[in-house]
Design brief:
CATH class of the largest domain: Mainly Alpha
Number of helices: 14
Radius of gyration: 26 Å
Largest sheet: 2 strands, antiparallel
Helix content: over 70%
Distance between the termini: 99 Å
Number of strands: 2
Number of domains: 2
Strand order of the largest sheet: 1-2
Order of helices and strands: HHHHHHEHHHHHHHEH
CATH architecture of the largest domain: Up-down Bundle
């Protein structure tokens, strides 16, 4: 009798405690209470949260592998409209996966190494794509390297940079960055672009807008030396010039961004896995872009657009991962990271492409046209001047971002209607 009474008393006590803790338990189950906030620390996870986490981690691993399989199955094959649409979907997924893995690596190694990894990876694959298309295309692709490199410079210096400035300024009013590092990068871009894309139009060793073998060798060696000097400055000598500027006093990012910013870096194993998957994703991006390029070429010809516009489309596809990564960095008030991605990609595109193309001329037949036309030279000059005015104050508003985006629109419009 006493035991039963005691049992009922204890049961009633537990019920009263649970009634008092009911709201707290409910908040914890929905992630709004202390349990939800500390579920990782306590080793417990809500089933829905666990499922979402597994899905987020699985698709970034699965998509690059699937894209590589699709690339193998579609390589050197004529694709129908439905197959092209399916490849385009896989291509978009590969781009998003590449952005995810690049950000994992950047979080592990820190700036500016993270931006450098993505810029170099994309450029190496871009160079491989250019050489592949030049080998298969014959003399008709004599200007492909010029068109692709120039498009990459315009897309990065105006598109990626302009969008990052606009997005950051819309969210935070003004954005700030290091003028020392950004100005140095812009100076290297101006030097590389003028030496490799403008000078061939004015030299007299050859009749067309191309270098002689000796001039091409010098341009290749000089470009590689400039790129090496820039990387040394960015990562060793003056790394602090390329680090994000501290947020303005009183400015605070969204809670999710703030939590991501202060999250512990991933393990070495996770970073190495992301590095391998990033390489797979980038190979898939470039390969699938090449797979859909015949459809793009057919569409360009049907629309009466110059064939050089195909290089612009391919450059847009290849540089999409960097554009997304730069935009996401701008949304976290890390505009310096966005500029590192944009200007670093432009430098890598010229500094690595020209030496490799110069070396490839030893076995490639036909001319190599590098010199820009008068319209392109004007656009390049305007890009350099506007970029200097943007970088000089060390801060920017949405006006500067809009100017760069309008300049990119002018480049694309004139590429379609020369």
């Amino acid at each position: 009798m006493d035991r039963n009474s005691g049992g009922r008393s204890n049961s009633g006590g537990r019920n009263r405690v649970e009634e008092r803790r009911g709201p707290e338990l409910e908040a914890n189950r929905t992630g709004n209470g202390r349990w939800g906030q500390n579920e990782w620390a306590n080793g417990r996870r809500d089933p829905v949260t666990s499922l979402i986490g597994r899905l987020q981690s699985s698709w970034t691993v699965t998509v690059p592998v699937v894209a590589l399989v699709v690339l193998v199955l579609t390589w050197q094959r004529n694709l129908g409209a439905l197959a092209v649409a399916a490849v385009a979907v896989v291509l978009v997924g590969s781009i998003l996966a590449a952005v995810h893995h690049a950000e994992v690596i950047a979080h592990r190694v820190g700036e500016p190494f993270g931006s450098l990894v993505l810029a170099v990876a994309v450029t190496v694959i871009e160079v491989a794509l250019i050489i592949t298309l030049m080998i298969s295309g014959g003399p008709e692709t004599a200007s492909l390297a010029r068109d692709t490199v120039f498009a990459a410079v315009m897309i990065t210096a105006n598109g990626i940079v302009g969008l990052a400035l606009l997005v950051g300024a819309v969210r935070f009013g003004t954005v700030r960055f290091n003028t020392e590092g950004t100005g140095a990068a812009l100076g290297v871009i101006a030097m590389l672009a003028t030496m490799t894309l403008v000078l061939p139009s004015f030299t007299s060793a050859r009749s067309g807008p191309e270098f002689s073998p000796a001039q091409l060798a010098f341009a290749g060696i000089a470009s590689l030396a400039l790129y090496a000097a820039f990387v040394s400055t960015q990562t060793v000598r003056h790394r602090d010039f390329f680090l994000p500027v501290p947020a303005h006093p009183g400015r605070r990012a969204a809670a999710a961004d703030d939590a991501e910013e202060h999250a512990p870096p991933p393990s070495t194993r996770a970073a190495l896995l992301s590095l391998g998957l990033l390489a797979v994703a980038l190979v898939a991006v470039v390969g699938l872009a090449k797979a859909v390029s015949p459809a793009i070429e057919a569409g360009v010809k049907a629309a009466g657009i110059p064939e050089s516009f195909v290089g612009v489309v391919i450059a847009l596809l290849v540089l999409t991962p960097e554009g997304i990564a730069a935009t996401r960095a701008a949304l976290r008030d890390r505009i310096q990271t966005s500029l590192n991605l944009g200007y670093g990609s432009a430098i890598a595109s010229i500094g690595l492409t020209v030496p490799v193309i110069a070396l490839s001329t030893l076995w490639l037949e036909g001319p190599l046209i590098l010199g820009l036309g008068s319209t392109q030279i004007v656009l390049l000059t305007l890009t350099v001047v506007v970029s200097v005015l943007t970088v000089a104050p060390g801060r920017a508003t949405r006006l500067q971002g809009t100017v760069h985006l309008i300049l990119l629109a002018a480049f694309i419009f004139l590429a379609i209607n020369p």
